[in-house]
Amino acid sequence: MSTVYLSENADESLKEYIIDTGHVLMEVKKTADVYDGIATHPDIYICKICDQLITEEGDLGYNYPNNVKYNAACVGKYFIHNTNYTAPKLLEFAKQKGLTIVHVNQGYTKCNLAIVDDKSVITSDEGIAKTLESTTDIDVLLISNGNIKLKGFPYGFIGGTSGRVGDAMVFHGDLSEHPDYIEMSNFVFDRGFCLQYFDSFELEDIGSIIEV
After folding, report:
1. Per-residue pLDDT tens for 154-194?
2. 78, 173, 87: which is closest to 128 by C-alpha?
3. Is the entire prediction scored with pTM above 0.90?
4. CA torsion through residues 116, 122, 128, 129, sign
5. Parallel, antiparallel, or unpaired: how do β-strands 78-81 and 100-103 relate?
């Protein structure tokens, strides 16, 4: 039985789905460590590396870039982040695990990466896409910006709406309303996974869905 980390502000339908499919739900509660828009986001406080969670220890700052120290993405053999801002213990752990360190300019790296499997990601960040395509063997689906809610901001990011839970790529909200829905669904299906989303509310960034 796996554990799924999820914002306390996630819609109840997603929480029920996690529980009904046999997973343990861990809700991330709001803190005053970072600004309100991301204060319940799991990917601000924890990073999953090689099926292990590395958690922040009170070393976050309220604003960017001090709030992105743990917002890295581990995709297969690659550890991806703006390494200028990575928490030292996180970077050291990644190196100990033998991961290839990939520097990108985007500090909110995990927010911007929907990780489908060890070699496949979806992103709207052109800089991340260009770096991964030129320096790794990761398959990248580049989608359009926007069309995702994030409290206090013009829009959120695809990584923050989603996460792999078992054999399903799960999205918080109605993925079918996204202009790149067909491309994303085909990308997921082509890799042997199913798709789970919720058409009763708008696609919203909640700081990733993290299964361990």
Report:
1. 999 999 999 999 999 999 999 999 999 999 999 999 999 99
2. 78
3. yes
4. positive
5. parallel
Alpha carbon of residue 156 to chain centroid:
11
- Per-residue tokens: 70: 């743990």
Instruction: List the domain boundaries for the chain.
Output: 3-211
Q: For residue 43, which of 64, 28, 32 has the smallest C-alpha distance? A: 28
169 contacts 112 by C-beta, under 8 angstroms: no
Coil, strand or helix at 28: strand
Provide CB contacts within 8 A for 96, sequence distance 6+. none
Cβ pair 132, 73 in contact under 8 A: no
Q: Report the alpha-carbon distance of residue 101 to residue 72 in Å, rounded.
A: 11
Assigned CATH class of 3-211: alpha beta
CA separation for the pair 174, 108 (Å, rounded): 23
